[in-house]
Write a structure and sequence with these properties.
Helices cover 29% and strands 28% of the residues. The radius of gyration is 17 Å and the shape is globular. Strand 4 and strand 5 form a beta hairpin. With 205 residues, the protein is an alpha/beta fold. The strands form two sheets. It has an eight-stranded mixed sheet with strand order 6-7-5-4-1-9-8-10. A two-stranded antiparallel ribbon has the order 2-3. The two termini are 31 Å apart. The protein has a single domain, classed as SPOUT methyltransferase, trefoil knot domain (Alpha/beta knot, 3-Layer(aba) Sandwich), CATH 3.40.1280. Bound molecules: S-adenosylmethionine. S-adenosylmethionine binds next to strand 8, strand 9 and helix 5.
Length: 205
């Protein structure tokens, strides 16, 4: 089963950590999208995906390049609701204060980076995009995969040109344009089915 990593480029979410937990879309600059991606990427019913990791890369605010890494094998205090997940993110942002790499809570690391560095350190990068090739029958590597996607906004042309230097392929998940967290769920489903080892029952109809 490959380790799955998801890198979400967050375009408007603020990095000063002053957002109101009762107004995540407005005061948080759509931090609600990031929170939903964390939940979709790491949680299953009554459990955590130990083989998954989320990277939230924040482009805006006083500390552009702030990056939060949440690792499924170590994370604690992660719950399925958006509000408490956003609180975990806010805690990471507030505690960082320009330190190098800080572990703000178990399994949650925060540091400054740039897109190119994150992509260079990621093995087997795939870019999720509507105009990519279908992902369903794609042959994925079995060790580690990094999927990159936008938040409520697509990547800019500049971001895309950096990503395409490192991406092994651009993958499409649907004929429709989907929410980021739904893209993550579909990827998990594709990989779960491919690598779980349990045969899919035959359709007898
Ligand atoms: C909500 S979408 C961004 C805005 C959207 N493209 C639009 O025009 O409204 C979030 C991200 O999910 C990914 N995405 C959305 N639909 C996809 C699809 N059908 N196949 C692959 N990736 C998709 C892309 O990375 C996209 O930037």
């Amino acid at each position: 089963m490959p380790k799955r990593r998801f890198l979400i480029v967050c375009h408007d979410a603020d990095t000063d950590g002053c957002f109101n937990l009762d107004d995540l879309p407005g005061s948080g600059g759509r931090i609600d999208v990031a929170a939903r991606c964390v939940v979709a990427g790491l949680l299953i019913s009554y459990g955590v995906r130990k083989d998954a990791e989320i990277l939230l890369f924040f482009q805006r605010g006083p500390r552009p390049g702030l990056t939060i890494r949440i690792s499924g094998d170590r994370v604690k205090y992660l719950n399925p609701d958006e509000r408490s997940t956003a609180a975990l993110i806010r805690n990471a942002i507030l505690k960082h204060k320009n330190a190098g790499v800080l572990e703000s809570s178990p399994g949650v690391q925060v540091f400054r980076s740039d897109l190119e560095t994150l992509l260079k350190t990621g093995r087997n990068v795939y870019y999720l995009k509507e105009d990519g090739i279908p992902a369903e029958n794609f042959v994925f590597p079995e060790d580690e995969i990094l999927f990159l996607l936008g938040d409520h906004r697509d990547l800019t042309a500049d971001e895309e040109s950096i990503v395409m230097k490192y991406a092994r392929a651009k993958l499409n998940l649907s004929p429709l344009s989907l929410y980021s967290e739904h893209c993550i769920t579909i990827i998990h489903n594709i990989l779960d089915r491919k690598f779980s080892g349990s045969p899919v029952p035959e359709n007898r109809n």
